[in-house]
Design goal:
Elements lengths: L19 H36 L13 H6 L3 H32 L5 H9 L6 H11 L8 H13 L9 E2 L5 E4 L2 E4 L11 E4 L23 E8 L23 E5 L5 E6 L5 E5 L6 E4 L19 H26 L3 H9 L4 H29 L3 H5 L6 H4 L2 H9 L6 H31 L1
Parallel strand pairs: 4-5
Antiparallel strand pairs: 1-4, 2-3, 3-9, 5-8, 6-7, 6-9
Helix pairs in contact: 1-13, 3-4, 3-7, 3-9, 3-12, 4-7, 5-7, 7-9, 8-9, 9-13, 12-13
Length: 449
């Protein structure tokens, strides 16, 4: 092939070199385009990392060099171990749960007509800020059933099936021959058959008195083998009446259990009061002690202490799953939309059922997306701060704390020790960095395919 005039080497036999000025010009142009990004990376990433490592080597004031002293203090502080333990719980529970939920939602919503509406509902929490979501969950799981929706539902269900005491915190009026014993109310002296024993009580909220409660009346004199009496609220709203005596305006307390105990404490007879508070214990022989068992006065069921030290971490994790399940669903759904559906149809034609198609075709083809979602969630839960700081009340925050919250607390939330806080920040960076590298490599692998 003939050599063109343009490409022909000169008489000396060597090709002319590209001018150095042109290569330098291209380098400067590339540097000019990269400069803003490099400046931002240096200011927002490189400098904070380098300064945090440097600051972690000094004391709280930043004037005395401690070397690795802050790291020693960090790993001897019980609060650090609690935060690391909680972070481990987060890493073990949250990424798996969110990824599985996202996969289930994506696969199921791919098969129903109103899948788009459902996806919108599931993804909607992602539009809420983490602080706002934390406030929602803190209110929802309040222990007071008048404020917390969850406990209000539990109390309603409990009252329907289990019922509750209508007279919590009731107590006997003084100088009436009655005494409180282990939550119950008993007669101080024994009572003989054929006698009458009344129970004037106070400390009952009139709002708790059942609607069928009637005016208290004196009980009829019983037979020789029975004991009768009246249990009433010895109080009139607005005042009035004689203490310890039945009078107009004093309500009987219905459905109160009354028991007769022999000398060994065994129950020999029992009865419940009528709407007017009267009762009759039949078949009593010998002197007995009358008692109103503690079950009559137990505090009403108030639900579960969701935000207490035991369950607060579970509540915070639940709130995170509620928010991020939509993210996982959308990511996995995008992978489903790009999947070659002919492989699934071929498997069905070969006789595979839906579970086999999912396990052998769908899940393996979605594995790159699932890995990216899983690793991204690990990075996010290692850095979790907002929900853990907002949802727990101050009394439970030490039990729910994670490394990011502990770092903020030590540095700015009262500890004012930015040396120790910087050491915690370095620890968090070391924990997050491997997963970030894994994610970057996955992105590169996907781009090269």
């Amino acid at each position: 092939m003939a050599t063109s005039v343009v490409d022909a080497p000169p008489a000396g036999g060597t090709r002319p070199r590209r001018p150095v000025a042109a290569g330098r010009r291209r380098f400067l142009i590339a540097l000019a385009f990269l400069a803003p990004a490099l400046v931002l990376l240096g200011v927002l990433v490189a400098y904070p990392v380098i300064y945090s490592v440097y600051r972690s080597l000094f004391d709280a004031a930043g004037s005395n060099f401690l070397g690795l002293g802050n790291y020693v203090t960090m790993f001897t502080d019980p609060a650090t171990f609690i935060s690391i333990r909680n972070n481990v719980i987060w890493v073990l529970v949250v990424p798996v749960s969110v990824t599985i939920l996202g996969l289930i939602f994506a696969v199921l919503m791919d098969r129903i007509k109103w899948g788009i509406a459902f996806k919108l509902i599931v993804f909607m929490p992602m539009a809420i800020s983490m602080v706002a979501a934390g406030v929602i969950f803190r209110t929802t799981f309040q222990e007071n059933p008048n404020l917390g929706v969850v406990n209000a539902a539990l109390v309603g269900i409990h009252d329907v099936f289990g019922g509750g005491s209508a007279y919590p915190n009731a107590r006997p009026r003084d100088s009436t021959g009655l005494q409180a014993a282990k939550g119950a109310i008993e007669t101080a002296d024994t009572v003989q058959p054929g006698g009458v024993q009344d129970f004037p009580l106070i400390g009952v909220n009139q709002a708790n008195i059942p609607g069928n409660a009637a005016q208290a009346v004196a009980a009829d004199t019983p037979g020789s083998d029975a004991i009768s009496g009246t249990v009433w609220l010895d109080f009139i709203r607005g005042g009035g009446g004689t203490p310890g005596e039945i009078g107009e305006g004093k309500k009987g307390l219905p459905n109160v259990e009354v028991t007769a105990l022999d000398s060994s404490g065994a129950v020999v007879a029992s009865a419940r009061t009528a709407d007017n508070g009267t009762y009759v214990l039949s078949g009593v022989s010998g002197d007995v002690t009358l008692a109103l068992p503690a079950s009559n006065f137990s505090a009403a069921y108030a639900g579960v202490s969701w935000l207490g030290p035991t369950l607060v971490t579970a509540v915070v994790i639940l709130s995170y799953i509620w928010i991020w399940a939509g993210f996982a669903m959308v990511m996995i759904a995008s992978g489903l939309s790009a999947m070659d559906r002919s492989l699934q149809e071929a498997a069905r034609m070969d006789g595979a059922n839906e579970w086999q198609v999912f396990r052998r075709i769908t899940a393996p083809l979605l594995s790159p997306v699932l890995i990216v979602v899983f690793v991204t969630l690990i990075v996010n839960v290692l850095k979790i701060f907002d929900l853990v700081y907002v949802i727990p009340p101050p009394s439970s925050l030490p039990d729910a704390t994670v490394i990011a919250v502990q770092m903020w607390t030590v540095s700015f939330g009262g500890g004012n020790d930015q040396g120790l806080g910087s050491a915690l920040a370095v620890l968090l960076l070391i924990l997050v960095l491997p997963f970030m590298i894994i994610n970057v490599r996955r992105f590169r692998m996907d781009r090269e395919r």
